[in-house]
Amino acid sequence: MRQLYKIYVYTFFLILLCGIGWGQTRNRVTILVDAFGKSDALKQDWGFAALVEYNGKRILFDTGNDSESFAYNVKALNVDLKRLDLVVISHRHGDHTDGLHHLLKINPKVTIYTPNDEYFGGPTPPAFFRRPVDSLPVHMRYFKGKVPKQIPHGSPWKSANLVRVDSVTELMPGIRLVRNISQTKLFSETPELSLAIDTPQGQVLLVGCSHPGIETILASAGIPEKPVHAVIGGLHMVNADEKEANRLAQSLLEKWKIKHIAPGHCTGEVTFSALQQQFGKNYLYAGVGSSIDLP
């Protein structure tokens, strides 16, 4: 009888704790790495990392520029890297990937989604072998003139559980990756992944650097046909002048019908200002340590 009583009491308190929200997670995006923020307890660094918590799922998006700084902020924000459902790396650049060194020490078996890029062990660009010279002697020919169909590139992340992505990929119901390739001269042929989350109030789009252009990414996510509630992350406008920053801000608001904007990382201070003026109260601050609630 006493044992049964203990079970009843335990169950009652468990229900009570759950009822007041203990053990539950908010639907939110928490910024783990960026170069601006309000808290002196966190390290600021160039780069980007964010933790997405949505419908009980936990997704790490990018890992920042420096493994030690990433580890410091993760600890300061009480983020348990062992409790991740998956990881997304937006693109190959070191300011989004270096924290993988720390992550893989803590959670070596976690599934990591990356672009299908040579940096992550993807294929060596076929263009390297498109101009063969048959008249050369065999010992001067690549692979003696018999080039394999695919040549996997070396990668520092070969031991990781990588899933390389080259098309729209559903991670779980209502959460998917969209892929684009930069066409700019500086970052040409850099594939980039963005995370799209369906919410009751529209899509939330999390972007790393937006090298392909944020408007190109929005188009690939089905917008404006599928409205977007918020865009969060880097817009790669750090070198934009006021004219281009104002043009983009107006376009995001009027053409793309973006409800909320939460820019960070490589967006640039000129573009921060332009977006804040255009979006007003719908401009969401996204410095390191801040959390952006999702509907």
Describe what you observe in this structure.
This protein has 295 residues and is of the alpha/beta class. It folds into 2 domains: 24-118 and 157-293, Metallo-beta-lactamase, Chain A (4-Layer Sandwich), CATH 3.60.15.10; 122-155, no CATH class. Helix content is 24%, strand content 24%. The chain has 7 helices and 13 strands. It has helices at 2-19, 67-76, 94-97, 100-106, 214-220, 242-254, 269-279, and strands spanning 28-33, 49-54, 57-61, 86-88, 111-115, 161-165, 169-172, 175-181, 191-199, 202-207, 228-234, 260-264, 291-293. The strands form 2 sheets. A 7-stranded mixed β-sheet has the order 6-5-4-3-2-1-13. A 6-stranded mixed β-sheet has the order 7-8-9-10-11-12. β11, α6 and β12 form a beta-alpha-beta unit. α6 runs parallel beside α7. The longest helix has 18 residues, at 2-19. The radius of gyration is 22 Å and the shape is globular.
